[in-house]
Amino acid sequence: MNPLESITKNIQQRIDEKFADTNYIESYVAFLDILGMKNILNKDYHEVRSIFNIIEASTELYKNIGLSTGERFISQNQIKLLVMSDSIVISTAKETDRSLSKLIGISSYVIKTLLSELKEPVFIRGAIAGGNLYQDDTTVFGPALSEAYLLETNEAKNMRCVVSKSLHEDENFKNYVENNKTITKDNDGFYFIDFIDVKNRVSLIEYSKNILASDIDDKTKSKYSWLIEYLTCANV
Q1: Looking at beta carbons, which pairs linking 51-57 to residues 24 or more positions away fall under 8 Å?
Q2: N or C: which end of the chain has fewer CB within 10 A?
């Protein structure tokens, strides 16, 4: 065996040993897609950087929220977040205390902050699913992610982060819906993260009207028409 083959074999063996005891974990996962990334990348580096700063700050913020017990709302390694260009994957083990609440909370923060804190709103389309998942600092894969990705691609359609209908009977989800106003239900039966508040509603209505008044294709017009209806009908 030549030296290169020996080195390659040794590296592969170490990697195999490193992950020998790992497996899928029953998890909740959010797959979020940053809309309009192609145009965003034409902007100055610092404008683009600010988007990713908001995403990274989301987990840091929630790690510093304290409970009445003195514990942190999110402890070390409870939430995993991975950014891949215009895609964000956030996950937590289902067995984690308040697991779904933590996942939806961070996803909601990212969505709302990107709409309110930048020169122009940045919209997110996404989906939340549950099931088997593996995620670490550099890698994520599993059936739950595949379901979330397909939901985002085929069902979310507009600027919304939908929850898989397979979770509608999940006890954690039912409890969350009963006790929180962060989730709302759309006409097609999908629950999604309610991202409208008094801080962004007026500006988003004005922004959407300007987009609709411009020369846009029918597909984009449909998305902003949905947004206008949502903005005007939502209870804030």
Answers
A1: 51/114, 51/118, 51/122, 52/83, 54/110, 54/113, 54/114, 54/117, 54/118, 55/81, 55/83, 55/88, 55/110, 56/81, 56/83
A2: N
